[in-house]
Amino acid sequence: MSIKLSKRQQEILQIVKEDGPITGKQIAEKLSLTRATLRPDLAILTMAGSLDAKPRVGYFYNPQSETKKTTANLSKQLVKHYKAHPIVVQKSASVYDAIVQIFLEDVGTLYTVDEEGLLAGVISRKDLLRAAIGNNNLEELPVSVIMTRMPNIVTVQPDETLLEAAQKLIHNHIDSLPVVREVDKEQKKYEVIGRITKTTITRAYIEMLEI
Ligand code: ADP
Questions:
Q1: What is the pLDDT along the chain (211 residues), one digit of tens a residue?
Q2: Fewer beta carbons within 10 angstroms: which end of the chain, N or C?
Q3: Are residues 60 and 90 in the same domain?
Q4: Residue 15, domain CATH
Q5: From the CB of 137, is ligand 1 less than 6 Å away?
Q6: 55 CA to centre of ligand 1 in angstroms
Q7: Å from CA of 174 to ligand 1 middle
Q8: Residue 123 sits in the same domain as residue 140
Q9: Given ligand 1 and candidates 148, 154, 198, which is best to mutate, with the most ligand atoms within 8 Å of its CB?
Q10: Residue 197 CB–ligand 1 contact under 6 Å
C-alpha cells in the first residue's frame, strides 16, 4: 500500500529528484512558501522513505523507495503464504482449559470445532475474562456457552489477499481470522486450516519492506 501524496508533496518530491541534495530552505524558496509550512510535508516524505535527509547536506531522493512501495503491497500477497498454525479446542472443552491453552500456546484467540472437526466458534481473551468474572466453576463451564459462534464468524480463504484479510480485521474490530477451507458452502461448513492475526499482517509488512 503506497501513501497517497498531496499535490504539494509531489511537487517537493519532483524538486528533490531534479535538484537534490537540496536544503529545506531552498525547497521553500522554490515553492514560495516558508520552511515552517513545508516541515510537515518533509517529515511525511522522509518517514515514508521517499526522501532521505542528511544534516548539512539536505534532502535527497531515495530511488529505492519506489521498489519498496511496489514490493510492500498487501494486495499482492496471499493469505496461504502467510497463515500461522491455528490453535483449536473442542467446543465441549472447559473455559478453564481454554485459558490454559491460551497461555501454553501463547496466542490471543482460540478456535473451537464440533465433533466433525468443523469450525464452531471463536474465543478471544476478553471472552475468557468476561466468563471468569462471577463464575467460580470455570472447569464445569463449556467454551461453547461463551464463544462467538457460527454463522457470525468472519473467516478468510487461503487465496484471498492479505489486504482483504487486513480489511476484515479492521472493519470487524477483531484481532484474528480463521483461515478456512469450505467443506459445504451452503451450510457454511468450514475446516480450519490456519489463522491470520494483526501480528501476521504487521510481520508481512516488515518482511516486505526489509527486502
Ligand atoms: P479481544 O476480545 O481479546 O479484544 P478480539 O478483538 O479479537 O479480541 O475479539 C472481540 C470479540 O469478537 C470477541 O467476543 C470475539 O469472540 C469476537 N471475535 C474474534 N474474532 C472473531 C472472528 N474472526 N469472527 C467473529 N467474531 C470474532
A1: 456 789 999 999 999 998 888 999 999 999 999 999 999 999 989 888 889 888 888 998 877 766 666 667 888 899 999 999 999 999 999 999 999 999 999 999 999 999 999 999 999 999 999 999 988 899 999 999 999 999 999 999 999 999 999 999 999 999 999 999 999 988 889 999 999 999 999 999 888 877 5
A2: C
A3: no
A4: 1.10.10.10
A5: no
A6: 47
A7: 5
A8: yes
A9: 148
A10: no
